[in-house]
């Protein structure tokens, strides 16, 4: 019983955080360990992938996927933080969210209603190949609309443009740990955009 639910949990995690669609890319991937990439290598890889990523996410009808690239980038480059499947992560904030988000405040944060954070992801496989990962999205609803998740709605777009399916608790059980920050994890300190 315990083992089967554990297996199910792992399978579920792999479904969400494992590599999704395979894209043959001509981009130079410097190795199989994303933690070892230099800043320049990450920047070069992203420069090679960014058009394909935007096209992939916006190939369905998700509004955020078509809009987020015009929003405010919250870090100087993608970075691997560990969570979200050790992918390189790059978060964009819409106009409603940007000012408050970019303070990276640690206490008493309440993001304005209508805030949207959209986070691109890139996965390096064990073979040292690059895969486009999901676009992860958090949208702040009106007070009381989603009391169990601090009024955040979690969603995601797969690289084929289609919506991801998961339970809200899957995302929020982890994000809720960012107490005082309105459930926001923020990019790693060394890559945060300072204004
Ligand atoms: C195991 C913990 C964990 C889980 C599960 C998780 N996240 Fe995150 N998430 C983080 C961390 C840590 C960050 C900040 C790291 C970074 O972006 O560099 C983050 C950042 C984000 C951001 C950027 C906004 C922010 O918090 O700063 C979005 C959007 C996001 N996650 C969406 C999701 C969605 C959607 C899911 C569910 C499919 C999910 N997350 C599941 C840990 C998690």
From TrEMBL:
<protein>
    <submittedName>
        <fullName>Recombinase</fullName>
    </submittedName>
</protein>
<dbReference type="InterPro" id="IPR038142">
    <property type="entry name" value="Cytochrome_P460_sp"/>
</dbReference>
<dbReference type="InterPro" id="IPR032033">
    <property type="entry name" value="Cytochrome_P460"/>
</dbReference>
<feature type="signal peptide">
    <location>
        <begin position="1"/>
        <end position="24"/>
    </location>
</feature>
<feature type="domain" description="Cytochrome P460">
    <location>
        <begin position="67"/>
        <end position="183"/>
    </location>
</feature>
<keyword id="KW-0732">Signal</keyword>
<dbReference type="Pfam" id="PF16694">
    <property type="entry name" value="Cytochrome_P460"/>
</dbReference>
